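REQUEST ID: PR-0412
SUBMITTED BY: lab tech R.K.
PRIORITY: routine
TASK: structure prediction, single protein chain
INPUT:
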Amino acid sequence: MISTSLYLPSLLSLSRRTALLLPLAVAIVQPVTASNLYKWSDKQNQVHYGDVVPSEYFQAGYAEINEFGIVRKVVEPIKTAEQLDEIERQQNLAEKQRREAAVRAAYNRALLASYATEKDLIRSRDEKIEAFDRVIGIARDQLEDLEKRLPQMRNMAAAMERDGDGVPNWLRTDIKNINHKIIQMRDYIARQREDQEAIKGKYAFDLKRFREAKLEAAALQAGTEQGAQQRSKR
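STATUS: complete
OUTPUT:
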């Protein structure tokens, strides 16, 4: 191995003639070709030169140089398992962000294609909310009717029992069915209200995104027009 005492970087400060002669002098002591001269750093960041990279520094990376000390090739350090995991994590994160940006752009395009103005979007929201109000209103009317009929039928059954006539099966079945319908109707109204709130939330989100998309489109248009003006002046 060539001794580090040669201090090859000093070639840069020597005259061109000296720089040309010095490698010849080195070759007299120990023949070295441009293909097997290397540069590396130890743990103290001290630079070394030689024809073979010591095994303890091989994985830390090194540079292949020519006889004038000019770097011909850089061999990057061998990455640890932790570094490889971090690289994979960063790549996955970048890919996730790319997909999210693509989905966001597609969603914005769909909004701009669906609604010409903010008022159109608000009108669509109000129509859907009003449709839920109508459905819920009809269901509430039906529920109120059932809730009125149930106590009436129970009172009828109680009167029959007091008279000793007994409660007929058809009445028992009707009471059971009405009670079941009341439970179903209450659940139905609750689900409709949940869906209505979800619609309100979606339109609130869409309205915010629509405004952002409009601003982005306006900024893009302004940049395009400015670029066209600059090209026309050339």
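NOTES: The chain has a mean pLDDT of 83.
REVIEWED BY: pending
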